[in-house]
Amino acid sequence: MTSEISVLLVDDQDLFREGVAVIIDAQDGMTVVGAAPDGLEAVRLVDELEPDVVLMDIRMPEMDGVEATRQIFSPDRVKRRSKPVRVIVLTTFNLDDRAATAIRHGASGFLLKDTTPVMLRDAIRTVHAGNAVLAPEDLTVLLDGQFQARTPAPPAYEALTEKEREVFAAVARGLSNTEIAELIFASESTVKTHVGAILRKLALRDRVQIVVFAHEHGLVGR
After folding, report:
1. Burial of 56 per CB tally in 10 Å (0-12, 13-18, 19+)
2. Closest CA to 112 of 136, 132, 135, 89
3. What is the pLDDT of residues 49-104, one digit of tens each?
4. CB of 117 within 8 A of CB of 23?
5. Which domain holds residue 64?
6. DSSP alpha helices (H): ranges in 26-185?
7. Gene3D superfamilies from the xrefs (predicted)?
C-alpha cells in the first residue's frame, strides 16, 4: 500500500492555511502534517517533520519563502534527510521574479494562490513524483536577463555527448520533447532517454533545473 503524501503548509494568513488544509485532507492519499506562519518556522518544521511536499508562500514576515527555500535546500540539510523534500511556491503574481529565485534555490515550480483544488492536488502529486509544475518555457521567460555574473560550466557538462548537448540546449530554450524530436530527427522516446542521461550526469532533478543550470552557467543559446 502506498503511503500518504505528507504536506507542510507555510503561509502567514491563518484563514488561507486552514482552507488549504481542508482541501488537501479531503484528497485520497494526502495529509497535512504541519503548518507554519513564516519561513523561519517552516525551516524548523521541515527539519523536524521531513514532509514530502511543502506549499510555500513567498511574502511572509520573519523570513520570506525565498530564503526559507534556500535554507531548506542547503547541502548540509539535504544530506541529513532520509528522503527528498519538494517545495511548491505559492504566489499571487504570475511569472513572479521572487518565485523564479526560489526555483533557482530548489523549488519545483510555483502555483497561483487562486488555483483550483484539482490543480493543487495534481501539482502536489506531480512534484512528489519528482517532476516540476512549471513549464520550462515559462521559466526561460522568468530567468532571461537575470544572470550577469556567470560561473563556468562544471566538468560534468563537458562530459555530455554532442547529442546530449544538443538536447540540453533545446530544453534550456523551453522546447518540448515533441519539438526536440523534430529538431534532432529522433523519436520522443530517444529524446526522453537523452534528457534522463543529462539529468543523471548533471545531478539535476527535472527539466526546470536544466533551464536554471543553463542560465546560471551562460549556456543558453550555445
Report:
1. buried
2. 89
3. 999 999 999 989 889 999 999 999 998 998 899 898 999 999 887 656 788 788 88
4. yes
5. 5-134
6. 39-49, 65-72, 75-80, 97-104, 117-128, 136-143, 155-158, 162-172, 177-184
7. 3.40.50.2300
148 and 43 fall within a common domain: no
Q: Look up residue 195 and give its amino acid.
A: V
User: Which grid coordinates belong to 15?
Assistant: 484563514
Q: What cell does 36 get?
A: 507554519
Which are the contacts of 99, defined by CB distance < 8 A and separation ≥ 6?
58, 89, 91, 93, 107, 110, 142
Query: In which region does residue 2 sit, left (phi positive, over 0), alpha (psi from -120 to 50) or beta (all else)?
Result: beta
Side-chain half-sphere exposure of 90, counting CA atoms within 13 A: 25
- Domain boundary, last residue among 108, 134, 160: 134
**Cα-only R_g, the chain:** 18
Residue with cell 526560489: 102
Residue 186 lies in a domain: yes
Per residue in 115-158, pLDDT (tens digit) is 899 989 999 998 898 877 876 556 666 666 555 446 778 889 99
CA distance 134 to 41: 26
Tell me, yes or no, whether 222 lies in a domain. Answer: no
Q: What is the DSSP letter of 51?
A: -
Query: What single DSSP character describes residue 133?
Result: S
Among residues 168, 164, 174, 199, the alpha carbon closest in space to that of 95 is found at 174
Residues 119 and 21 in one domain: yes
Cβ neighbors of 94 (< 8 A, separation 6 or more) are 112
